[in-house]
């Protein structure tokens, strides 16, 4: 989010009269102390190529007002809902975060799931403004999940029904709030010690929250026309496309090609002793394997024209080869099982449907993922349920 959404907000502030500030709320347990100690400020280093020219941009992002942890300051989190100027909610809790958890309760402090937290937040705002339709929000989930806006709206309504909230709240959710389907495309490796050391040497300050990102960015937003007016991204020169039609074909291509390649390569490359995406694509075995997987097993199942898909695949490969971006494989490995289910399993099943046989490269990636959870158990980060399931399966207590 800090390498994408908060940068977008910063560009809006710099180039238009938007004047927006964001409150950061981590979806899981984690301290926001470092963010607040830096007054929400951090350095963004953008590196890559544009029109065959090397781009190296460094800027201080000032679009965050503060961070709030729902695990230590839940009431402060709800207090944000009382702000009459609040208009937008952006989220990226990964594919594992956009799930319905019916065990959540309104009285929980906090709710375990993101949809649960959002429902409680919206209900608090509904009550604070007595159901005023002018106080609805524009909600833009950025999780790589199909129809993410529609799905989040469905989860909020389901959560409200589970909690037996008043009928007027359901009407307010449906009529006063706008849930947008989105698609984000930018590689954001995150913190880089090398970049932080350069900043310390050249600028004279230490930034524990520095973020690196590639130059390329693309943001699809499926929304009514008024959203484009309220978020004048294009006036700020940003590569944002507002669509009234379905973004599904674009989302499918991006998720299955770029994100699918990431998820497929991680267990294979890491088990071969490689550490970054660039090392993986440069490797004489891993690189060609992943490229053939895309061309032979993934692209034929996509809806966009073949020439567009081949061009996009080549652009993705060029981005993977960006020498400035050190994208750690272990960072991509976070929540690997849910990522494979979203990014790679649909390609695998489509191939079986079309060919009536297994796609051997995707199958090998899946088997490598299962092995990865055993061979590197101490370094894998995932939901406790997934980690327990994998351990029990490898121990022979439960079958896969």
UniProtKB/TrEMBL annotation:
<protein>
    <submittedName>
        <fullName>Altronate oxidoreductase</fullName>
    </submittedName>
</protein>
<dbReference type="InterPro" id="IPR008927">
    <property type="entry name" value="6-PGluconate_DH-like_C_sf"/>
</dbReference>
<dbReference type="GO" id="GO:0005829">
    <property type="term" value="C:cytosol"/>
</dbReference>
<dbReference type="GO" id="GO:0008926">
    <property type="term" value="F:mannitol-1-phosphate 5-dehydrogenase activity"/>
</dbReference>
<dbReference type="Pfam" id="PF01232">
    <property type="entry name" value="Mannitol_dh"/>
</dbReference>
<dbReference type="InterPro" id="IPR036291">
    <property type="entry name" value="NAD(P)-bd_dom_sf"/>
</dbReference>
<dbReference type="GO" id="GO:0019592">
    <property type="term" value="P:mannitol catabolic process"/>
</dbReference>
<dbReference type="InterPro" id="IPR013328">
    <property type="entry name" value="6PGD_dom2"/>
</dbReference>
<feature type="domain" description="Mannitol dehydrogenase N-terminal">
    <location>
        <begin position="2"/>
        <end position="233"/>
    </location>
</feature>
<dbReference type="InterPro" id="IPR013131">
    <property type="entry name" value="Mannitol_DH_N"/>
</dbReference>
<dbReference type="GO" id="GO:0009026">
    <property type="term" value="F:tagaturonate reductase activity"/>
</dbReference>
<keyword id="KW-0560">Oxidoreductase</keyword>
<feature type="domain" description="Mannitol dehydrogenase C-terminal">
    <location>
        <begin position="246"/>
        <end position="375"/>
    </location>
</feature>
<keyword id="KW-0520">NAD</keyword>
<dbReference type="Pfam" id="PF08125">
    <property type="entry name" value="Mannitol_dh_C"/>
</dbReference>
<dbReference type="InterPro" id="IPR013118">
    <property type="entry name" value="Mannitol_DH_C"/>
</dbReference>
<dbReference type="GO" id="GO:0019698">
    <property type="term" value="P:D-galacturonate catabolic process"/>
</dbReference>
């Amino acid at each position: 989010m800090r390498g994408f959404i908060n940068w977008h907000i910063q560009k809006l502030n710099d180039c238009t009269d938007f004047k927006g500030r964001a409150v950061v709320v981590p979806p899981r347990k984690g301290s926001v102390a470092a963010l607040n100690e830096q007054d929400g400020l951090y350095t963004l280093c953008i590196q890559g190529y544009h029109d065959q020219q090397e781009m190296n941009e460094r800027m201080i992002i000032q679009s965050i007002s503060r961070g709030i942890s729902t695990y230590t300051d839940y009431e402060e989190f709800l207090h944000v809902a009382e702000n009459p100027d609040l208009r937008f909610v952006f989220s990226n809790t990964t594919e594992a975060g956009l799930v319905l958890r019916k065990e959540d309760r309104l009285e929980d402090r906090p709710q375990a799931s993101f949809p649960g937290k959002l429902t409680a937040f919206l209900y608090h705002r509904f009550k604070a403004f007595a159901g005023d339709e002018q106080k609805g929000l524009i909600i833009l989930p950025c999780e790589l999940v199909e129809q993410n806006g529609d799905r989040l709206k469905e989860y909020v309504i389901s959560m409200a029904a589970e909690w037996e909230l008043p009928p007027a709240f359901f009407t307010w959710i449906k009529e006063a709030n706008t849930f947008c389907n989105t698609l984000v495309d930018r590689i954001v490796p995150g913190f880089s010690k090398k970049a932080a050391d350069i900043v310390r040497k050249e600028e004279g300050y230490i930034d524990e929250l520095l973020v690196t990102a590639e130059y390329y960015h693309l943001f699809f937003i499926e929304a009514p026309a008024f959203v484009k007016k309220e978020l004048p991204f294009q006036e700020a020169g940003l590569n944002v496309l507002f669509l009234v039609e379905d973004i599904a074909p674009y989302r499918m291509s991006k998720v299955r090609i770029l994100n699918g390649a990431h998820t497929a390569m991680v267990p294979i490359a890491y088990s071969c002793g490689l550490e970054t995406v660039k090392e993986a694509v440069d490797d004489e075995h891993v690189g060609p394997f992943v490229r053939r997987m895309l061309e032979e097993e993934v692209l034929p199942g996509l809806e966009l024209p073949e020439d567009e898909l081949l061009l996009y695949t080549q652009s993705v490969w060029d981005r993977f080869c960006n020498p400035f971006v050190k994208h750690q494989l272990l960072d991509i490995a976070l929540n690997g099982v849910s990522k494979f289910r979203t990014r790679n399993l649909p390609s695998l099943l489509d191939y079986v449907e079309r060919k009536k046989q297994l796609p051997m490269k995707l199958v090998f990636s899946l088997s490598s993922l299962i092995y990865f959870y055993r061979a590197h158990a101490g370094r894998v980060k995932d939901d406790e349920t997934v980690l327990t399931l994998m351990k029990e399966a490898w121990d022979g207590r439960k079958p896969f």
